[in-house]
Fold this sequence. Notes:
Layout: H1 2-5, H2 23-30, H3 34-42, H4 46-49, H5 80-93, E1 100-104, E2 110-115, E3 132-134, E4 143-150, H6 152-166, H7 172-187, H8 190-202, E5 208-214, E6 228-235, H9 237-253, E7 272-282, E8 289-291, E9 302-308, E10 313-319
Parallel strand pairs: 2-4
Antiparallel strand pairs: 1-2, 3-4, 5-6, 6-7, 7-10, 8-9, 9-10
Helix pairs in contact: 6-7, 7-8
Amino acid sequence: MVLGNCGNYKSFGDSKFIPRLPSQQVEAIASISKDAQDHLAKAGGAQALYETSSTGLMHLGYPEDGHLSTYYPDSRDIKTEEIAYVSDFLKDAGLLPENTRLRKTQSGDIECLIASAESNPSDSDRDIKQTSWDLSGPLQGKKLTLVFGDYQREMKVIADNLEEARKNALNSHEEAMQAAYVKSFRTGSNNDFLESQRQWIRDKGPMVESNIGFIETYRDPHGVRGEWEGFAAMVNKERTKAFGKLVESAPDQIPKLPWGKDFEKDKFLSPDFTSLEVLTFAGSGIPAGISMYDCQHTFGLVLTAVQISPTTMSSVRAKASRTSVWAT
């Protein structure tokens, strides 16, 4: 459970679970690695995993409700109204929130932490030029400041390795995708991350499929800040062939669906439908399916359905030049 959820909170449901072994055994497991010991200490030690006296901390959620969330670090007194206000403010300013966290300082000012390898990216590399504002509303008289370099060490290692991966790209789309990843993770630009997704959609029928970044927003109680994940998968040729036949028959099957033609496009745009065998999925849980960016309705929607068995994980991946894809 702990390994499958990357912690002791369920990846789906956000409720705490208690390990079915003594705390001494948890400490023994952590003792094999200095990093594991450090992480356990930061979590409050092994005993914290068994703590149940606070009902609020049994769930992930808004700090104001007494719940736990690392999207608002060191900010137990930050109010839900303030989170909503700042989120709307940054949206209006043009800053996408997936790679951000919010921290309320002792003075009551708000810092927007942006995950990036660089702590001071240039104006041309930032998604928005301005980095501080005077606030109003529930934060009247306070300041909002963008702070780059959140998870700086980790983001640098990731960007450096993706730079090496870029050297082994098989085509221009893969090369452009890796380049956009690198720039995004170095500078904190979500616009560059969107470009990586555009190139991912354009890369039709690769034998090795991968994606990485701040994607799903379920664990943020406000539902806008993403959780880091990544996966690598290989094409299952036989199953892909079968799905190819399904796609070919789609123009004949769509009219049989239980809704009128007004709900469909005039012309069916055939997706690139590929069945994948997932080598690794790094995240707090394996989702039943993944809906990726639609890239401003220009390049389409990507749906990935993941099926898990004791011996393998298989994934169906559709890259389609459509703004909607129906799947069962």
